[in-house]
Design a protein that fits this description.
The chain folds into two domains: about 1-30; about 30-170, Peptide Methionine Sulfoxide Reductase, Chain A (2-Layer Sandwich), CATH 3.30.1060. It has helices at about 1-30, 40-50, 70-75, 95-105, 130-150, 190-200, 205-210; strands at about 35-40, 55-65, 85-90, 115, 120, 125-130, 160, 165, 180-185, 185-190. It starts with a helix and ends in a 9-residue tail after the last helix. Helix 4 packs parallel to helix 5. The chain is about 40% helix and about 20% strand.
Amino acid sequence: MSQFSNVKPILLAALIVIGLVAETKRASAAETQVLTVAGGCFWCVEADFEKVRGVSEAVSGYTGGNVANPTYKQVTRGGTGHYEAVQIRFDPDVVGRDQLLALFFRSIDPTDAGGQFCDRGESYRTAIFTKGASEKATAQKALSEAQAALGQKIVTPILNAGQFYTAEDYHQNYYKSGERALTRFGVITRADAYKRYRDACGRDARVRQLWGSAAPFAGG
């Protein structure tokens, strides 16, 4: 009997510790927030924001359209209404939504309503997608501040967030993929193709022209 009476408190203590660990993990997961934006080529937006401290992941996908489960070919061909978009998952204790939005505006050409850089058409337009009044107010404040800093009219819309469809696997982390593939530049790694594409498209050159030293990611 004495052996069991000694074991019970030990088991109870172990269960308490396990419960606390599980609760901590749940609390940590609950703290993660999501910012969904469209900034032209989603490879580039993903590459930029995965450099930011406090961002755990950036996921490429499609949103804003009227076709369920769209493919890359459908979206880039046009007619689905979708944007190439990125869900930025972040820890608000490390980086704020307002800070991410300030970085976002300074990483795009928010004066261009027809696409971004060499990429033209509806799928390459810029936008911010929000849920609820608080997120919308934060986005509007960031837009106003960016417009004042730029001294030009910003045409990037703030839209209600809808269904987000994750893009095909090969689009995720394209900018750092060592997998070789047939690209417009020949058979090379996707990471190399991304670098060549970004330079050829003029993204960083245009962002530097607009934002100067305030451009956080220009340079690839």
